[in-house]
Amino acid sequence: MTRAVYLDYNATAPVRPAVIKAMAEALEEFGNPSSVHRFGRLARRAVEEVRERVAALVGARSAGVVFTSGGTEANNLAVMGTKRERVIVSAIEHDSIIAAAHDCEIFPAGPDGVVELAALEDLLARDPRPALVCLMLANNETGVIQPVAAAAEIAHAHGALIHCDAVQAAGKVPVNMEELGVDLLSVSAHKLGGPKGIGALAVADQVTLSPTLRGGGQERGRRAGTENVAGIVGFGVATDLAGHDLERFAGLVRLRDRLEKRLRELTLETTVFGATAPRLPNTSCCTMPGVPSETQIMALDLAGVAVSAGAACSSGKVESSRVLRAMGADEEIAGCALRVSLGWNSREEDIDRLVAAWGELYASKRAGALGLPAA
Amino acid sequence: MTGSKQKLPIYLDYQATTPVDRRVLDTMLPYFAEKFGNPHSRSHAHGWEAEDAVEHARGQVAHIIGADLKEIIFTSGATESNNMAILGAGRFYKERKDHVITCVTEHKCVLESFRQLEQEGLEVTYLPVEKSGLIRLEDLEKAIADRTLLVSIMAVNNEIGVIQPIQEIGAICRRRGVFFHTDAAQAVGKIPLDVNDMNIDLLSISGHKIYGPKGVGVLYVRRKPRVRLKPLLSGGGQERGLRSGTLPTPLCVGLGKACEISEQEMKAESERLRSLRDRLLKGITEQLPGIHLNGDLEPRVAGNLNLSFGHVDGDALLAGLKNLSVSSGSACTSVSVESSYVLQALGVPEDLGRASLRFGIGRFTTEEDIDFAIHEIVAHVRGLRKESPLLEVARKGADPKSMKRAAR
Hints:
The complex is a heterodimer of chains A (about 375) and B (about 400). Helices cover about 40% and strands about 10% of the residues of chain A. Chain A has about 375 residues and is α/β, with parallel strands linked by helices. In chain A, the strands form three sheets. In chain A, strands 2-8-7-6-5-3-4 form a seven-stranded mixed sheet, with helices on both faces. In chain A, strands 1-10 form a two-stranded parallel sheet. Chain A has a two-stranded antiparallel sheet with strand order 9-11. In chain A, helix 1 runs antiparallel to helix 8 (about 230-245) and helix 5 runs parallel beside helix 6. Chain A is globular, with a radius of gyration of 21 Å. Helices cover about 40% and strands about 15% of the residues of chain B. Chain B has 13 helices and twelve strands. Chain B starts with 9 loop residues before the first strand and ends with a helix. The interface between A and B is large, with 76 and 73 residues.
């Protein structure tokens, strides 16, 4: 049987074998980190070691790292916990940012997928109330990397705090919270080869955070609940591996470019979103004109290739991407988009399988459209 | 010393956390590796496989509390479940009803959630408990008013193990038209629970208290009559919009399996734990005078014992028990040895409260473990009392009869 091809790493990445091994061991060591006895102390030590490693991956101070149940909780905590009167978010933020801020103000993105900082500056200048600005580092659908450091300067110049959702960037490209100059930064383990159910919000020293989850006072009172020790241990191993493999990850750009080149060879009509902007090396968001995303995905799935139309959240309802529409794509084009995202276990043959299946579908659709028998 | 080769220290803190059962772990592992899909990816087989696994687990969890699987919302743990139930209901309904009721011995995450609701303008009644550790139903009846929205009373207390009269509380709440939430983190898998029979509207479950993994829990949310909640976590709209965030497939699967095992083994395991618990209590009290049981022995879950040791210094008590992993107070507060608020609420004097130990007995505790614990505690407490100025008790504890038993 041929290997199933998984090209949906931005939805979730397969867990690295070393992570699984470490977690299986950690699950058998079982103390509650808040217990004072030996079992508890061992668990506490494991948690604190990983805190340092996660801090190192994103250039944060370890005391500022708050473990959460994942990226959504980290983003929610940043938006709600900073308790700012205004929340200003980019049009391409993840739902976990937009939904967490009621009445958020939005600044737009250009057709290349990069946000427009002038619009952010206008919004900030217009109203002096304390604000939180949210700008992701890399977009989950297009992979486009955002000018976060510049946005941080603008935000700070207006007395605002800035949060950066680095869920899709951490472990894929170098991330340094200090260099970016952001006050809060979110990461998720399962996007970088770690387990689901664990993430972190890194918080700069000067930021006071009011918790979303209240209780036993864990995480220095910033996030209650018994720590997910095994998840944290797995996060640590994944963090190390991803940090170590950043250069290799950068090499995925060759596979990604090969994909886009081959698709363009099949049809010049394909659009690659954000192609002119700096992007993550692993992400390609492209269209098969005239063929709805849903049809493409199903056909590719039958051919054993897993991709997606965009974010993998919730209801499974198919609607065209908010992110692509924010870039000015009309309903029709956005409705034909496909997100291909590569990862640590992707190979050249995966790309070839995808291109072959995509090509076959395209040929049959074209033949159908022209009233010809399928080739 | 006993002659058996026991791995030290002996773990007797099953109310703080439990080891993951091997059977649970084996069920989880494939979902880390080859079955790693995002359960919300609707576009490919990886996602469907993960989704099927999550739904199967949802059914297993539903079954142990007699719920429908559509009423099961996965969370990151009981803290989140409790926060979500209390804050979620309070925030959703506060324009219509602005009074809520809980009890003073609830877990911190419940009490903190109520404190937050107070900040947000709701009125909270904190019911007292009797020396038994239980609330009085008359107090509850009296506290409920027309504007009462929610009653939250835990099923089993985490420190003293006593079982609140859930059935009766549920009946009262239903009759008075008030939602009933119960923190069942310490109860699920230990005592039979049925949300319909007991008229429970919201119920919190923890994975790691029932031999499942940490980082996962459940909130049961009744659908008929429907309880509505303002979500705590917003975003992708997972879990029917009530709880956003990618579901951790292996953790959900682990919790499901943990529920299935606990449900199957509950009856036999309770009997076994009760006999171990009784053995521990008898072993200690037969040899040591001045032992006080905190909370009534019945109704109490089988695996809990909370004892105070008279004429012993609290810090020295815990510090000297290197071979036993037990706790004083709940784990969340155990960084400092102080009389826990639960013991204070029972009216336990401060010195006795400080000199208390919680023994949590569980699935992997053996008779040898219990005998070893008895031996350690008796020897340690006798030693402390010998050094203590309160010698009259120490002398009593050193009578020849009990010396012989200890040396056995």
